[in-house]
């Protein structure tokens, strides 16, 4: 019975489940799972409602004012997309990302599907990778939804013409639309750090609502910290720092500085919180 | 760790939750090719043990070998050969039964997507669910979910199938079907480890069993071994005194029970040792002109053995 006293080591578990072989089918399955949920479509519909409400409000009242870009909507419908994404970035987008990323493993645990995936054996690292990929895909879909619906409703309700950029030059409509889509990509990248944080929090619990709420609260906290000038020393390291830096894509020539800095910062967050999530999830007892 | 014909072998397997020891120094031996009943009242540590066998939870102490390989370190190689139902089924309620199976099949590395549809259809057919394949699992009854859970375990050919309380929520007909399914799997050479808190429900199914109580193994082995070699020999005859004499010559101490008799018949009870065959006794009785109206050989049920071993009823929770 001497071996009964030896504490069992976790050695090897990580390495044996770490090989992401044949991940394509699982990735497709994960994407299908995301987009077959009514909840996902409800979130996207709520996001699509933002530009619609903005455009209708401007149309009915006939006056501009309010957040940036809203004043320009009546003169040029293309600005509906810019205005809508500006409204969505601080709260609505993080809210939907929090739901999707916070649900990752905690949602599977609460359904009881996590143990069956692991027995399959899906591989713990492999599962985290596809969960993050699905969250990233959702970030892109969410940002594109706001922007594309904004452009379409703008085309429908307002005159559309060449856009005067922040730097003063005018670009043709097609050029402006390309920049709008680029802004959606910028915003999607901005949300990757938050997705990784949500994924990590999700590995800590079997209660998805808790993980979702915690993720959203963190995104708000980070924005509040970013608004306090006393804390300017930590500002460059907040994942929300560059969230509104997409204006640089509306200059001529395009300034890629904030895009690059943002991408690098988000990558850092993904690496740190992705590693934390793996460290936690690989050794965790699945008792759900 | 040896691979001596054991599909599952644990040594000193222990799991602690805080200060509470859910499984204590468990030495489990599940022979390859057996239908192994893993029995014990609620809370006796069956599910916790199964979670450790499947690398869902890490042991606090002890070693595990499944299909000849150490767990959890070799889980990526072992688990594809194992199908399991653990602590009730778990599904995506917003997907159909078919879509759920497709999802689990896609999650398994190395399965071909070309043959996926066929595997899913086969698994659904084996548990009798094709009619409900397209319905959302959220609308399934508990029994249907239980069957779908078993279907997940059957998606690929397995060497070991672990079924944790597979008859929970099933009606008697469903229970019979699960038993038939287990027999069929075992006939194909699959080792089946089936846990239950209802001894009677799977006793008739098992070739081997282990009985748990508060995280500890009470008894383990072949079913006859567990029940003991002694059975009760019960005879009904009008010639009770002569019968007692015949039985005594065969080494049986028989008693005449007066209170149970029909007409002039009386009952004679004796303990039947393992080395005496009841058919020899009957021919000896007949040869001695004992009119034999009825004979029964009653072996104690596992539940009776458990009560004898522990001095407690089986249904006590800790
Ligand atoms: N996640 C957990 N945390 C703490 N205690 C647990 C947990 N899971 C099970 N237990 C305890 O471990 C013991 C064994 O439980 P379990 O393995 O589920 O028993 P069984 O499957 O035989 O009914 C019980 O006393 C139970 O309360
Ligand atoms: Mg149990």
From TrEMBL, chain A:
The keyword Transmembrane applies. Keywords: Membrane, Transmembrane, Transmembrane helix. The lineage of its organism: Bacteria, Bacillati, Actinomycetota, Actinomycetes, Micrococcales. This is ABC transporter permease. The chain crosses the membrane at residues 41-58, 78-101, 132-157, 177-201, 213-234, 263-282.
Automatic annotation (TrEMBL), chain B:
Keywords: ATP-binding, Nucleotide-binding, Transport. SMART domains: AAA. InterPro entries: AAA+_ATPase, ABC_transporter-like_ATP-bd, ABC_transporter-like_CS, P-loop_NTPase. Gene3D superfamilies: P-loop containing nucleotide triphosphate hydrolases. SUPFAM superfamilies: P-loop containing nucleoside triphosphate hydrolases. GO terms for molecular function: ATP binding; ATP hydrolysis activity. Signal peptide: none annotated. The keyword Nucleotide-binding applies. Residues 8-239 form the ABC transporter domain. Belongs to the ABC transporter superfamily. This is ATP-binding cassette domain-containing protein. It comes from Labedella phragmitis.
């Amino acid at each position: 019975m001497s071996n009964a006293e030896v504490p069992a080591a976790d050695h090897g578990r990580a390495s044996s489940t770490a090989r992401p072989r044949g991940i394509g089918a699982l990735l497709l399955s994960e994407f299908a799972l995301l987009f077959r949920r009514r909840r996902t479509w409800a979130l996207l519909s709520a996001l699509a409602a933002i530009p619609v409400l903005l455009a209708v409000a401007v149309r009915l009242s006939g006056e501009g004012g309010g957040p940036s870009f809203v004043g320009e909507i009546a003169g040029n419908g293309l600005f509906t997309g810019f205005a809508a994404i500006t409204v969505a970035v601080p709260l609505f987008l993080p809210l939907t990302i929090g739901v999707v990323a916070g649900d990752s493993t905690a949602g599977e645990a609460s359904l009881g599907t996590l143990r069956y995936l692991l027995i399959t054996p899906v591989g713990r690292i492999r599962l985290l990778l596809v969960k993050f990929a699905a969250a990233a895909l959702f970030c892109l879909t969410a940002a594109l939804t706001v922007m594309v619906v904004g452009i379409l409703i703008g085309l429908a309700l307002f005159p559309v013409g060449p856009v005067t950029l922040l730097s003063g030059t005018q670009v043709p409509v097609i050029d402006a639309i390309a920049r709008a889509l680029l802004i959606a990509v910028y915003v999607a990248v901005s949300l990757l750090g938050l997705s990784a944080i949500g994924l990590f929090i999700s590995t800590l619990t079997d209660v998805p609502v808790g993980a979702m709420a915690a993720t959203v609260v963190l995104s708000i906290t980070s924005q509040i910290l970013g608004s306090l000038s006393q804390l300017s020393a930590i500002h460059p390291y907040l994942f929300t720092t560059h969230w509104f830096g997409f204006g640089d894509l509306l200059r001529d020539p395009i300034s890629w500085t904030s895009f690059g800095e943002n991408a690098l910062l988000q990558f850092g967050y993904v690496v740190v919180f992705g590693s934390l999530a793996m460290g936690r999830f690989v050794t965790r007892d699945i008792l759900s | 760790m040896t691979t001596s014909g054991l599909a599952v072998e644990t040594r000193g397997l222990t799991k602690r939750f805080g200060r509470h020891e859910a499984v204590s120094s468990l030495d489990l031996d599940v022979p390859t090719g057996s239908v192994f009943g893993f029995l014990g009242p609620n809370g006796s540590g069956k599910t916790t043990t199964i979670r450790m066998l499947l690398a869902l939870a890490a042991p606090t102490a002890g070693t595990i070998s499944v299909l000849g390989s150490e767990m959890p370190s070799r889980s990526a190689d072992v688990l594809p050969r194992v199908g399991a139902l653990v602590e009730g089924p778990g599904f995506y309620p917003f997907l159909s039964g078919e879509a759920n199976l497709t999802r689990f099949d896609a999650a398994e590395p190395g399965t071909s997507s070309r043959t996926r549809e066929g595997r899913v259809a086969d698994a659904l057919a084996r548990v009798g669910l094709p009619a409900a394949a397209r319905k959302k699992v959220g609308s399934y009854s508990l029994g249907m979910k239980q069957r779908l859970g078993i279907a997940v375990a059957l998606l690929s050919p397995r060497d070991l199938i672990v079924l944790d309380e597979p008859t929970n929520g099933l009606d008697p007909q469903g229970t019979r079907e699960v038993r038939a399914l287990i027999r069929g799997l075992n006939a194909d050479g699959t080792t089946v480890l089936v846990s239950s808190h209802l001894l009677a429900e799977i006793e008739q199914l098992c070739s081997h069993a282990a009985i748990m109580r508060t995280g500890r193994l009470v008894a383990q082995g072949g079913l006859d071994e567990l029940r003991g070699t002694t059975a009760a020999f019960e005879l009904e005859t009008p010639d009770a005194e002569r019968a007692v004499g015949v039985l005594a010559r065969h080494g049986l101490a028989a008693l005449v029970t007066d209170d149970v008799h029909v007409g002039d018949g009386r009952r004679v009870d004796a303990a039947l040792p393992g080395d005496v065959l009841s058919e020899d006794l009957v021919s000896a009785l007949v040869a001695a002109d004992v009119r034999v109206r009825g004979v029964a050989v009653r072996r104690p049920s596992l539940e009776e053995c458990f009560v004898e071993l522990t001095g407690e009823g089986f249904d006590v929770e800790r």
